[in-house]
Every structure is written in C-alpha cells, then in structure tokens.
Write a structure and sequence with these properties.
Layout lengths: L30 H11 L2 H16 L12 E5 L8 H10 L4 E4 L17 H13 L3 E10 L5 H20 L4 E5 L9 H19 L5 E5 L7 H11 L4 E6 H8 L3 H8 L3 E6 L1 E5 L2 E5 L8 H10 L5 E4 L12 H15 L7
Parallel strand pairs: 1-2, 1-10, 2-3, 3-4, 4-5, 5-6, 6-7, 7-10
Antiparallel strand pairs: 8-9
Helix pairs in contact: 1-2, 5-6, 6-7, 7-9
Length: 347
C-alpha cells in the first residue's frame, strides 16, 4: 500500500505530493525514473491503472525517450560527377542523408573555382540552400599529397591544402581531407614519413583557430596500420586526424578491422564506406554488402566504440565510369544501412 498523500487522503490525491523536487526533464523520465516521476505527479487510481505497463517497461530496461547515438549518413560527390549542386542536395535530402562530402563539382576538383564557392555572395547563397535542405558540409576532399620531396611540388600541394582549409572555415565544414600518399622507391621510407608528418603539422598549424581539422585519409601506399599509427604519433597535432577508409586498407593489407580500430581509434574523425570484390588482385566496387570487405564489422566497431562522425559513402564513379549510375548507388546505400541498423539511423 502507498502511504497517505500529504495533501489529503482521498482516492484522487496525488501520490507522494509531500515530496518536493526540482522539475524533471524529459531525458530523466525513463525506466524506473519515469515511474517515480509519475507516482509523484498523478493520482493513485491513475497510477494503478498504468503501473503494469510501466513496470514491464522498466524491468525490460526500456527507455521511453532514450535514443542511441544516431549515425549520420553522407556521400561523396565523387559518386555523381555529372550532377549539379542543386541535383546533389535535392537527392541527398530526398534519400535520408544528413551531410555532403564535396570531392569536386561537375568534375572541377579545385573547389574554390566552383561557382558555388567562388565569392562571398555565392557562399552565402550556397549555405542558404544547404540550410533549406537541412544538410551539412561534412568534409572537403582536397588533392593535397604530402609525400613529395621536390620543393615546387610540395609547395603546390601544401598551398592547395591551405586553400581548402580557408574554404572549409567559410562554409562551416569541420574537415579537410589530405593524402599521405605514397612511399617512393627512390626515397627512404622514414624520410617520406617525416615529410608526411611535417606536412600534417604545417597544415594543422594553419588550421588553428579556424574550427577545421586536417584529416589524412588511409590511402595510396600508406594503408598499413603500423605506418599510419607511426605518422599520427609523430605528427601529434590537435588539428589533425584520420579518415578511415576501410576498403582502401583491407583490399591491400587484409588486416582485421578490429586490429585496425584498436590501434587507430583515437585518430578517426571521419570514415569512407564502400564495398568491393577482389578481381585480379584489385578492388572491383560493388553495392554495400555484395563484396568481400568486412565493412559491416568495421561499422559495428565504430558504433560500439562511440564514434559520432559521419558514415560517408564513397562511390568512385568519377575514376571508374563503368560503375552503376549514382541514382542507383546513392539510393541503395542509405537503404542498406537502415536495414542493417533499423533502430539506429535518422529517418
């Protein structure tokens, strides 16, 4: 039996009304906490009528308002090289994406030359279009390579990275992608690692105060976990991190995602998601779940590990024109992800 309420003992008196407590937010009203709240803010009769359902939910560990961290979906414009910017954002909004990763527009890879970003007025209009569609810019894909020793080539690449950082700041994009990228045979491997590290540090310093991070993609010949860990440890810069392209790594190294994630987790801020079959030793890209890459294992690791970034689909249509049309591939990806994780994705 419940004790008599503090403001009368009639059957409709609020339960435990003598107890004073601060207002409860919706986030607190879950499981047994919700039952306690209702007991203090409803009548005995109303509580008894609903207590069975409430107790069953609490015992089962259900939360009435609890939401798992929501994985966000984006796609790279590499997958739709013939689409206008308006086509891109219209498609993204219609198919449940929350973000866009810009890797060229209409095959123009130097983004500052694209009309959408070529002036302050155009940038303002572009941001308004993104806001209207409730989309975010999640990453700018530069072509900056950090392995070059030749001073002229190195300056050209570093300058591109800086231009992209400036643009990212202007359009409120958190990340700029750079490549490591190769280990030239005419150059000592450690010397190349030192060049990559210095490049990351220089770009990281440039990004300070701009709300932009410089992320090195696992790409080219820099795809082995130990090499990547070494580079990131040596760079040791708060404005730098990694883009984990699972397929780029696995199709070359065959390293299990669990091993990769364990060693690189703290550096991963963004991901590239795709699948492939191995044909004659190289990747042949296919729709998600149709290939050999343990891509869902990697996604599971990210989710369980508390990753809060975007799962960005990279359909390399620009580099591989034989791939399926973007209308098919970019529509398939969110459906596959939602079927795999029906309770964990934004609708």
């Amino acid at each position: 039996m419940f004790p008599a309420a503090g403001r009368g003992s009639g059957k409709d008196a609020p339960l435990f009304s003598c107890v004073r407590r601060p207002p409860v937010t919706l986030r607190e009203k879950s499981g047994f906490a919700l039952i306690n709240y209702i007991m203090m803010h409803t009548t005995r009769k109303e509580f008894l009528q609903n207590s069975g359902v409430l107790l069953a939910g609490a015992v089962a560990g259900l939360s009435f308002d609890y939401k798992r961290p929501v994985p966000h979906l984006s796609f790279s414009t590499l997958g739709c090289p013939e689409w206008t910017f308006q086509q891109i954002i219209d498609f993204a909004a219609a198919h449940g994406y929350q973000g866009i990763e810009i890797r060229g527009l209409l095959k123009q890879m130097d983004l500052v030359k694209c009309p959408e970003f070529s002036s302050a007025g155009n940038i303002t209009a572009t941001l308004a279009r993104m806001k209207e569609k409730k989309l975010d810019f999640v990453d700018l894909g530069s072509s900056c390579n950090l392995h070059f020793a030749d001073p002229a080539k190195r300056k050209e690449n570093i300058d591109e990275g800086k231009r992209f950082i400036d643009l990212a700041q202007q359009i409120h994009c958190p990340y700029v992608r750079v490549f490591p990228n190769n280990f030239p045979k005419d150059q000592e491997k450690q010397a190349t690692i030192d060049l990559i590290v210095k490049g990351l540090q220089e770009l990281g310093d440039y990004a300070k105060g701009k709300n932009v991070m410089v992320l090195m993609e696992t790409h080219g010949e820099a795809v082995h976990t130990e090499d990547l860990a070494t580079i990131m440890q040596l760079a040791n810069h708060p404005q730098t991190g990694l883009i984990w392209d699972v397929t780029n790594m696995w199709t070359i190294t065959k390293e299990p995602p669990a091993l990769v994630y364990k060693k690189l987790k703290k550096y991963i801020h963004h991901t590239h998601i795709k699948d492939a079959k191995l044909v004659n030793g190289g990747p042949q890209y296919v729709f998600l779940g149709q290939g050999e890459v343990p891509i869902f294992e990697a996604i599971d690791l990210l989710q369980k590990g508390g990753y809060k970034g975007y799962y960005s689909f990279e359909w390399e249509k620009l580099w591989h024109p034989e791939l399926a049309a973007p209308e098919l591939a970019l529509a398939d990806y969110p459906e596959k992800m939602k079927k795999r994780f029906p309770s964990g994705f934004e609708q």
